[in-house]
Amino acid sequence: MHPNSCPLHLRPRRGSTLIVVTMISSVILLLIGSMLSFALSERRMNIRHAARLEARNAAESLVEFGAAQIRQKYETRGSFTLNPNGLDALRQPPQSFWSGTNVVTTVSNLTGTSAPSVSSRDLELVGGTERTVATAGSPNYFFNPADPANVNDPLRNRWVNRRDVTVIARASVIPSTGGPPVSAYVGQTISIRGAPLFAHAIFYNMDLEIFNGPIMNIPGPVHTNGNLYVYPNAQLNFRGNVTATGKIFKAKKPGDNTSDGNSAAGRNGSINFLNRAGTLVNLQGQDATINSGPAFWRDATGGTGTNGTSFANFAANASQVWNGFLQTGDHGIQNYTPAAIGRYVEDPTPNNGVDNSVNTGRLIIEPPRIPSTSDANYALKLEVEKQKYSNMAGIYITVNPDTRAITAESRGLNDDQSFKPVKTLTLPTNDRLIKYNAYVESVGSAGVVVDGGMYDHHRGKALDLVEVDIQALREVVVELQKTGGFIPQNALGNLAPSDWNGIIYVDVLGGPTTRVVDESSFLPAGSTIAGTMPRNDRTSVRLINGAGRVPTFGKDPGLTVASNAPIYVRGHYNADGITASNSATLPEAGEQPAAIVSDAITVLSPNFDDKSSRRSRNPSSTGTVEVAAAFLMGISPTNKNGTGNTSGGAHNIVRFLEDWGSHPTWFRGSLVSLFESRVFTEPHGNGYYSPPVRNWGFNQLFANGVYPPGTPRVLSYARVNFVDMTAAEYKAARDSYNWR
């Protein structure tokens, strides 16, 4: 056999191996190529997905920016249009906002791309049209507490005026790998909720203090644009939603150096809030895990009972224990303020001789100050004017404290919020409806006798009184309803039925006013401009003969009496004086909604003796008083000017001058404090009165959405219905606004 020969089955298969290797290599190369292609495709997809996320985030940022503008417009304006071609168009953030991003902000960003058109791809922010949202059968919207969506809503179980505005936005991003931009379209609805001020049992535009002695029940919603300080001697029961934009403290307000009988630490009455089961649960010793054990206060301080370090777990704990019935700034509670009226801010430097507190809420009770159209702040000032009771008043009474002259006219706002022409009214030939009762005193055998006006020992002042007779006003309204609107001599001549709107304003000339903007080189907006008439601070309004129903006529039922001066109420008001256990909440048959609005309010017993008011400090009251009205007024804040005085708390917001002994007072309404008093500035104290048993309540008329004429609305905002949109949905929404 040849040495180089071998059997065929033993010969090497060199050609076959090469083929196999080549095939395997090809397969591997194909796999590698496929993997590289897949990786590149995946990378391109990831890049475009990242671009899509960036575009969506940019669009979301735009609608948030738009939502903030919507809120600002509602807080300073009564009406506006968001037409992109108009002055009220929503503004976009400055271009620098997008620095460092891939967001398309200019036409040049799109050069060289395959975008179908620049106009459909650039940044856009558009505000929609306002639409009213109402509950069937009512012009208002009811936040039903049974709806799970309303469980933690601060307005649950309340009627509000709800308006929704949708903001839509589009944004585009150019992927880093090039190609057409990736676009995102989103929409966000902003719900503007106008809750009437008198939908609250208690509303404070500042810190709220309650340190009741006897048991106190508050049967309705409570809100404060500040901290809530509670330290009762007996039970304090909140039987409605309680909200505070600050925190809750079982403590005195810092700066309160008064004793009030006991120290705050020694006042250990229970402080109870509702839970969803309708059970009152004490603030002391309650959290989500401990229902017994250490009995410390579960307030914002975590048990110290003083104004100290915040309780880190307060928000979560309160949500679990009180199920949304107690919420604070830790839960995101917002400030509620009337349109164009800001939140009160205490004077940051109380002892420098200049009052720098932001007290814009008082504008609501001040006389008209219609700005000139040439005023740089014309639009803002005009919106403030529309919130004033003085500009809404169907009957406007002007009193000159120096000359004692009284004049009358009719004002008011049209349905479109424009001002009605001012019409002069003729006063009656007698003084039964309204009269000026100047202070006069003499000395008799028993001492000083007051022959005109009255003396207020709380203020330490002799007062001239502008007396408004509610019974005579009823007669005016009766005559208005007769054919032809005939007005007798004891009424207001020239008053037409269309002039009556249930709002009466008494302007005591020369009083202090509040600065809006650009009226002084040294006072900030919201500070006080001093009065100009020396007798202004001793001239007050007194309502007499108010027992029975307040006069009512026309489309706005009820009566509101407002003034820039303090108001005194003598005897029953809008009530018959026959009381029962439910008189603090249940309206009487035929009762109409009523409000009294002023610098401060003092309640006097039915037969308060003016003649002995100078010599009799803390005189005995002459009987029980029942009042069915909302009270909107000012207070003298705790530690004003560094004095260490107390405001007296919400339970003392209504002033008294007598020893009420066994005569209780019944109050069925709403207690609202928007501002610091500027005429009745004397601090709370004692010695001039002994408080009655105060049966404070919340009128069911208000709970059911029936309010006095001119009731201000406090605005809050909620973002609802955030949606991602397709390009077609975006275009359809945009076209529906009819802006272009």
Number of helices: 7
Which structural class should the secondary elements be placed in?
alpha/beta
Strand content: 25-35%
Which regions contain 5 or more consecutive residues with pLDDT less than 50? 107-121
Number of strands: 38
Helix content, binned percent: 10-25%
User: What is the overall pLDDT average?
Assistant: 87
CA radius of gyration: 34 Å
The major pleated sheet works out as: 14 strands, mixed
How far do the termini sit from each other?
102 Å
From the spread of the alpha carbons, the general shape counts as elongated
What is shown here, in short?
The protein is an alpha/beta fold.
Describe the protein's architecture and organization.
About 2% of the residues have low confidence. The protein is elongated and about 145 Å long. Helices cover 15% and strands 25% of the residues. Strand 14 and strand 15 form a beta hairpin. The chain has 740 residues and is an alpha/beta fold. The longest helix is centred in the first third of the chain and has 63 residues. Strands 6, 9, 12, 16, 18, 19, 20, 26, 30, 32, 34, 35, 36 and 37 form a 14-stranded mixed β-sheet that branches.
Keywords for this entry:
740 residues; alpha/beta; 14-stranded mixed sheet; 7 helices
Write the layout of secondary structure elements.
Elements: H1 14-76, E1 124-127, E2 131-133, E3 141-142, E4 159-173, E5 182-196, E6 202-204, E7 208-210, E8 216-218, E9 222-224, E10 228-230, E11 236-238, E12 242-244, E13 248-249, E14 271-274, E15 280-282, H2 314-322, E16 326-327, E17 337-338, H3 378-387, H4 389-392, E18 395-399, E19 406-410, E20 423-425, E21 434-437, E22 440-444, E23 447-452, E24 454-456, E25 461-469, H5 470-480, E26 503-508, E27 513-514, E28 528-529, E29 539-544, E30 559-563, E31 567-570, E32 594-597, E33 601-604, E34 625-627, E35 630-635, E36 665-676, E37 694-698, H6 700-703, E38 713-725, H7 727-736
